Amino acid sequence: MGPEVRGLATLAAGFEAPLEMLAACHGRIRDQCAALSRFRSHVAAHGIDDSARRAARGVIRYFDSAARDHQQDEEQDLFPALLESMAGSDPVCIRELTDSLMNDHRDLTRLWRIVRVWLVAIEAGEALPPDAGEIDSFVDLYERHVTHEEQELFPMAARLLGTCELEQVGRSMRLRRRITSF
């Protein structure tokens, strides 16, 4: 697991603790990025075997669903809640932080589309060589991005958002995943 967000327990976090859940997701993102890095070596050494196809399917499933939901949790719920918490004062630093993180999300989405093409080919048993530059860029950007969130965004959100705001963020996260039982 990655660096722990000070004051946030990252194990077994749920929607009632949205910051902890987002922090726990970073550990899963790091795991998937590490798998993606190892995966390239596996395919080079062993070719496209059943293990490679299963691994490709798992990485695709994760970044097509959980990672996408994570970005939406931040952009549609957490970032606006933070900006609203600063009403009446100067939210320039929060706006710069959230704008920077949203730019990262766009870059990650663009890189994911490129990496995904390679993984889909592997899953289908086709020999398509990876573009190591894009895979490395994707993994490196994700590492910088989650570290930035853990060191700046989450501590700021923990300090500025009250119980009601965090409960709303958690409810929205739950509904995004179509979990209706509370």
Describe the structure.
- This protein is mainly α.
- The protein contains 5 helices and no strands.
- It is elongated.
- The relative contact order is 0.17.
Which features characterize this protein?
single chain; 182 residues; mainly alpha; Four Helix Bundle (Hemerythrin (Met), subunit A); 5 helices
The poorly predicted ranges are 1-11
CATH architecture: Up-down Bundle
> What is the CATH domain class?
Mainly Alpha
CATH homologous superfamily descriptor? nmb1532 protein domain like
Which strand-content bin applies to the residues? under 5%
Oligomer: single chain
Helical proportion? over 70%
Write the layout of secondary structure elements.
Blueprint: H1 18-46, H2 50-85, H3 92-123, H4 132-160, H5 163-176
Helix pairs in contact: 1-2, 1-4, 2-3, 2-5, 3-4
